[in-house]
Amino acid sequence: QVQLVESGGGLVQPGGSLRLSCVASGFTFSSAAMSWYRQAPGKEREFVAVISSIGIGTNYADSVKGRFTISRDNAKNTVYLQMNSLKPEDTAVYYCARRWPPPDYWGQGTQVTVSS
Q1: Taking CA 49 as the corner, what is the angle to CA 43 and CA 52, rounded to the nearest 5 degrees?
Q2: pLDDT tens string 89-108
Q3: Are 82 and 71 contacting, i.e. CB atoms less than 8 angstroms apart?
Q4: Residues near 32 by Cβ (< 8 Å), separated by ≥ 6?
Q5: How far apart are CA 116 and CA 113, in angstroms?
Q6: Which of 16, 29, 69, 97 is found 20 to 30 A from 57 (Cα to Cα)?
């Protein structure tokens, strides 16, 4: 069965950095585009970033361009989200997802809190 397990979330000060990881299993990881979404309390889940199966093509939400970088290591069945220059408005549960758009499988999410 398809499984996506996120990790790396936590509490960070504004301007700080975090690196999220998502380990995938149950499918051919190297053939699937992978994406990150986030959801803040009381808000709709929103797109953050996507990366193609090979890892060459990427797209980002305007709110994170220049600050976040999505990458993948197909040998490790893992997709990453490097988050720099974090802002309080980045606070959310971050979800790893398979394919885009729309995703067909989701991870359980990992909490990212940006606060002084």
Answers
A1: 145
A2: 999 999 999 988 899 999 99
A3: yes
A4: 24, 53, 98, 99
A5: 10
A6: 16
